[in-house]
């Protein structure tokens, strides 16, 4: 992973998770904290407050009366959704200034948020979810490509070779040309941010979950989310999409294929509203 670490280190001003995320996260995790305390913290961040209110008033929730206060929005949509929004907003804000000319940033954010929602949804099917961790994994899954497009745009373009190859095929070509792939760079980024070891291991093994050791199930969930995202971006029909998923990986993730169509449809509806709420491009 030496090359991957060098790529991360080469970006002097690489963004990290901002302090506002950790501050609000501590409040969310504090059983003694009140909704009012959380509302005051979010209220001190105008952009975040606006995103929360847009989400609460979106068609996805369909409340009959307009939600006009942050505390009311928190009460109605729940702490879990608030945590998701805060995390997504923090990462989107941090990386908002990093816009490599050759990278499709609309697709990047769409896929990142979709994978985060899918990871949480899949994990929660069996009530075994560390919600924040699986959501974060989805958001960070393709962050390695953002680093690579920023650090070595010519080489990453060469590795694509003008084709629409699968994620696995693309990663193999990246290793041949660059010496590492986006998953390795993502793991190196997680390490540089001093995120929990499980995050880095899972990101690094997302294409090969069997290599994730004790984090095998998390890696299988992330791999499944990435597969689904690829098919969604290719506008595959829902039934065709599920039929093309790797059954061995689904088994490792403890997922029944029949569970997926409803889950995917639900996540797609959430995706549209989350992107709108944060002002991120839909297409």
Automatic annotation (TrEMBL):
Pfam families hit by this protein: HDOD
UniProt organism field: Uliginosibacterium sediminicola
InterPro entries, per the entry: HDOD, RNase_Y/CdgJ
Protein name (Swiss-Prot/TrEMBL): HDOD domain-containing protein
PROSITE patterns: HDOD
Signal peptide: none
Record domain HDOD: where: 14-209
């Amino acid at each position: 992973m030496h090359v991957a670490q060098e790529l991360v280190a080469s970006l002097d001003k690489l963004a990290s998770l901002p302090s506002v995320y950790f501050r609000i996260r501590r409040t969310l995790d504090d059983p003694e904290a009140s909704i009012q305390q959380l509302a005051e913290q979010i209220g001190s961040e105008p952009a975040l407050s606006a995103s929360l209110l847009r989400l609460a008033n979106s068609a996805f929730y369909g409340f009959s009366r307009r939600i006009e206060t942050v505390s009311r929005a928190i009460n109605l949509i729940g702490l879990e959704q608030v945590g998701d929004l805060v995390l997504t907003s923090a990462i989107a804000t941090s990386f908002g200034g990093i816009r490599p000319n050759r990278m499709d940033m609309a697709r990047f954010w769409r896929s990142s948020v979709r994978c985060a929602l899918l990871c949480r949804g899949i994990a929660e099917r069996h009530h075994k979810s560390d919600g924040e961790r699986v959501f974060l994994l989805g958001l960070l899954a393709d962050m390695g490509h953002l680093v690579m497009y920023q650090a070595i745009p010519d080489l990453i373009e060469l590795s694509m070779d003008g084709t629409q190859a699968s994620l696995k095929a693309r990663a193999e070509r990246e290793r041949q040309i660059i010496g590492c792939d986006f998953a390795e760079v993502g793991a190196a980024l997680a390490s540089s941010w001093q995120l929990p070891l499980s995050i880095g291991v899972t990101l690094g093994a997302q294409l090969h979950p069997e290599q994730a050791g004790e984090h095998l199930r998390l890696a299988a969930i992330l791999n499944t989310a990435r597969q689904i995202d690829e098919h969604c971006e290719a506008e595959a029909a829902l039934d065709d999409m599920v039929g093309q998923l790797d059954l061995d990986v689904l088994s490792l993730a403890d997922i029944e294929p029949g569970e997926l169509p409803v889950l995917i449809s639900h996540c797609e509806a959430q995706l549209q509203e989350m992107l709108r709420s944060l002002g991120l491009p839909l297409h």
